């Protein structure tokens, strides 16, 4: 009450006294020596006659306070004038929020405080607009609080949901991993049997051939053996690859099957330890080879780069010399494009094309990945993604079975896996490996069973991998962003559609052309911003990137997509995930303090 | 997949390639590819046709002569006619020599004389010659004609061999500036095209018909008693011009003067850039300065010849300590001006007496400008504007580049991005700020565009060689170019800036002329074909270098008309020519965010100033590329001292407004901008000095210290006025630098007040806070130490006087102020004070002549603080007279806005009015 009254008093007195200012004195000295001081600081100024500069650089007398001459570089002595560039001026703004202005605003002819106290030298008259402005601000704040109140509830629900979903994911992963290792064992056994059979078959075949063919032909056969050995190497490589990189699995398996034909692998069937060491060896040698290969491919790349750079220089020269071949218009566009970077003449056109090709390929491979990884989301309803692929139907059903079973697992229930185990055991019993010649039906059964189960295994492994990937993501301190996974938010602005897919990518679509604005990077600014980086490269510019600032809202909604710097995008996402309880309390507190000032304001009015 | 790995490196390489090697050297002609230059450059005095002067008379106050081939045989062989020479003399030591074909002999075409460059006032300074004296020079067989110039200078026409020079009588009749001392004069006369004559020239895909054949002119000019030559902007090169030819000189291209839009120009090259001022001045310890100006707007190439270059000819009877130069032009006439000096400031005064004084700028335009290609829409404009307030950084002008228009049609607005341009400008203007929009000379060939329609109907476009409207390519695509050579078209153009015609413009809006070389994307060397036709059948080749100048002139005069002659124009132009200083500011075009470009900006801006174009600067931060924060900060610290202080950036670059690089860098940039705002009163005083004397705001050290040889080739440091010496920091993470401080008097560090000895090189530690700046002992400058949103709100703020005392405890300085925007100062509505500190007493004297018209500029502004650097006494009080007030003297911060600023002796609150006469005595 006191403070506010004093503030109003100041306006009246200073306005009245302005006219008394002598020609000698500068007209911008306020008449209240304590003008422009924040209430919490008044004690500091009133406690003694000699006041210290707050930065400790010196001191000044009461007479020097607000005398329109800067004695403290930090502005301590001139809270009410513009004399110190580093100073701050406090406006009470009764009825609204008090503000602290740069001293550069004092008596600059522009009304900054809604109470008009910053302009007192008589050059302009500022009306007091605090009441109106305050009302607008309070109403806005009330609305915001209402949003927050609903939002906080939504957020809580989301967090609950996210927690149980996460637990489920984790349980599933655990289960899947177990199943994976069991299935792996079975497949391994099948494989051994299959190889045994094939060995026998091969022996049988050789025997027959030996009988039937000449010595010369036998020599040829020796050669075949040699080539079979190479095939074996390949097989190992693939196996190693399978272990190290689940993603290559599918490709690896195809090759594996191919190399199976004519496989004469005959060692290590009986000794798992020796097999293990052999595998290690193989793995190591593969690693070495890979390293070598990598190194080589790097040099290759460099050679290519050099070559292509030479090509470019040539093209560059060509392009500039070939300007003769260009029409006037093309030449104009070409030269203009140097500044604008827009597609114009030949040269930039090529660059653009190169980019496009890259883009397309990138997108294609990505969508492949998506489909592949999308396996994880098979539980959702977009199974149709698999349409058109071989054996989709069967695979899908099997897969469904696997997933369903793993969803409903109860440890004592005989699972699908136990069934399989039983089937395989029966099969092994049925097949007589020492029967010569081999029973063709049995051999075929083993093969078929092997093929089916190893394909099952690969699917299981990919599911494990994608689930592991998912759980690696940062879903926020309270997992409040869990529901963003596998979701996209869209916003249409003019001709563009912006698509923000958290944990994946952000893109801009125009008709059929898609530009990637960034790949998922991370949360920033304590989970207030989602950053997407390394998007498509801009011509003559940086890689595109996007920052999505989030704020509390009741729906997940993208708005205000903007490109403040070329190829650096920003957007706003309203989401309940940002409706934090602490913030709500803060806002309520703010409103309370605003409201508590109102009656006083009314009194004064 | 394989494809991908191949295209990827290729693609990245392409980007890299594009970025680094983008200067398309091969698209521009070398001297060797330019027949007239190749011919002239290979000519020696033995292969030139020697000329002699005959029939010397006085006519209309001029000395008239004929130049004929020495042997009649040559004359008939070459089928040449006598040339007419006219020599006239003007006040203050200016000699003009014109040489043209004899019109009475009916040459096929009259050669082009560049109009509207020499100011009309110049004619009134002509000294009417009454008589000519004949005198035989040492060793000559025939006499020479001598006329008196002024102050002990003669102009001499030596008849045989033909030579023109100015000599200094007080110095044993030694030559000052001479033409054809080496006998390289050559004048290709116009001929009638004969059967089988093929005069056409091709360059790349362009063909130049050259219907009038060879018509070039070349001659040698010698600056005597000179150590270095300077000037002839615009090139990105050193201040002291390096020799381009001669023994021990790595032969380079000559300095080329041909206005061109050069994409990503390199930082050290004699290559021609956006503007051309064929004015050179020399300086030497022995003799001082002299100058030479060739008023000719065709392509020019100038060789600076290394000493001993002519040894093979054995004609070097001339004394050493001279600089020889070779001037070559494709067309036009000889219209040459000799300036006698002898000080650098004298030469500037003489040169600007011919081409005009630099215009007095709008006060706001001397403050900080914020530009970017492009502030995209009204929201962006509002945002950037509010950010300056949020960070308490002053700025005065926000700029809109080409994207603000509707399809690159100038005078229009993109109605999606800028639906309410007037309201936008009003909001900016409410904070005392201004806006600038771009208006380029290419007009979109779009029949729905009224400007194009009208220009077409009126026949106002430049024509191609067949007489049709020339159709070139620029930002809008197919475009035509207004023929700015015509005063009628210029006037019509000027009217387009009226508030009615330029819809959406308000009084706070000013103009930017870009691309006025002119830039033509599909033209030869990215400009207009030389055989394009201007009004009166003038070929573009003859007028090329002045095209942008006429455009700038038309725009500037349009803005004067817009404001009913009451508001000074502000027009920034990229192209320039002699005389540009009368019409507005110049910037050095599309530079790059590299340290070398920061470095070369200093000689570039200094050179522009030496050519009269005082109001100039480089894009702070560098136009192309992204500056590291350190480079950006250093650029602000240096750029704050450019006479024209604007930050600008290409649209592919990252945003770089001052607050985007973290708190510390924001603070450093704010401080750099604050320094400029504090110095605005000093700058404005210097702009007025330029406006009355031609002496530039930013000066080479040797302009202030003409006898200090150590300064002659220094272009890392420069002077602002006669008081401040600024040394740029041009390297990354610099820890220390060397600064040479000229003169016998000492210098005060402008940040700390510490004293440094003169005539010495100082090794200084470099801090991130600022670049080294020193205040010269014996000078006084005025500052305004309060900061506002813009210069507009500073009008009534009080002054700080900084007095740097010399060894005899004395100092002097000036303050000029007026309303900052109108022409009332021409009627005397200004305040001009001289402050003198002597014998412990500071006196303020009125410098405005009493008879300066009736107008007054009334202000109540006071001086709130007087800082005394180097004062001996520890006095506590001072007495203000005549009010007889006692005021305190204390130790107070040198810069109140800086933390930990050292304390210096300060007279506290003298609060004397700047308009009054007073004295303040230290007690």
TrEMBL record, chain A:
**GO cellular component terms?**
glucosidase II complex
User: Known InterPro entries for this protein?
Assistant: Gtb1-like (IPR039794), Man6P_isomerase_rcpt-bd_dom_sf (IPR009011), MRH_dom (IPR044865), PRKCSH (IPR036607), PRKCSH_N (IPR028146)
Domain named MRH is located at 486-581
The Gene Ontology biological process annotation of the record reads: N-glycan processing
SUPFAM superfamilies assigned to the protein according to its UniProt record, in alphabetical order: Mannose 6-phosphate receptor domain (SSF50911)
Q: Which domain of life is it from?
A: Eukaryota
- Asked whether the UniProt record includes Transmembrane among its keywords, one would answer no
- Chain intervals with Basic and acidic residues compositional bias: 193-258, 284-310
Give the compositionally biased regions (Polar residues): 311-325
Coiled coil segments of this chain: 443-470
Give me the ranges of the annotated region Disordered.
193-394
Q: May I ask which residue range the UniProt record assigns to the signal sequence? A: 1-28
- Mark out the compositionally biased spans (Acidic residues): 359-381
User: What keywords are annotated for this sequence in UniProt?
Assistant: Coiled coil, Disulfide bond, Endoplasmic reticulum, Signal
UniProt keyword Zinc, yes or no:
no
Protein's UniProt name: Glucosidase 2 subunit beta
- Organism of origin: Arachis duranensis
Automatic annotation (TrEMBL), chain B:
Sequence ranges assigned to domain Glycosyl hydrolase family 31 C-terminal in this UniProt record = 694-781
Keyword Nucleus tagged: no
Q: Where is the Glycoside hydrolase family 31 TIM barrel domain?
A: 358-686
Q: Where is the Glycoside hydrolase family 31 N-terminal domain?
A: 85-303
Q: Which GO terms of type biological process are on file?
A: carbohydrate metabolic process; N-glycan processing
Q: Where in the cell is it found?
A: Endoplasmic reticulum
Looking up InterPro entries in the UniProt record yields: Gal_mutarotase_sf_dom (IPR011013), GH (IPR017853), Glyco_hydro_31_AS (IPR030458), Glyco_hydro_31_C (IPR048395), Glyco_hydro_31_CS (IPR030459), Glyco_hydro_31_N_dom (IPR025887), Glyco_hydro_31_TIM (IPR000322), Glyco_hydro_b (IPR013780)
One MF annotation (Gene Ontology) recorded for this entry: carbohydrate binding
- What PROSITE patterns does the record point to? GLYCOSYL_HYDROL_F31_1, GLYCOSYL_HYDROL_F31_2
Annotated Gene Ontology cellular components are: endoplasmic reticulum
Task: Write out the entry's keywords from A to Z.
Answer: Endoplasmic reticulum, Glycoprotein, Glycosidase, Hydrolase, Signal
Q: One of this protein's Pfam families, by short name?
A: Glyco_hydro_31_3rd
Q: What does the record give as its pathway?
A: Glycan metabolism; N-glycan metabolism
Signal sequence, start to end: 1-22
- Domain of life here? Eukaryota
Similarity field = Belongs to the glycosyl hydrolase 31 family.
Spell out the protein name for this chain. Probable glucan 1,3-alpha-glucosidase
What organism does this protein naturally occur in?
Arachis duranensis
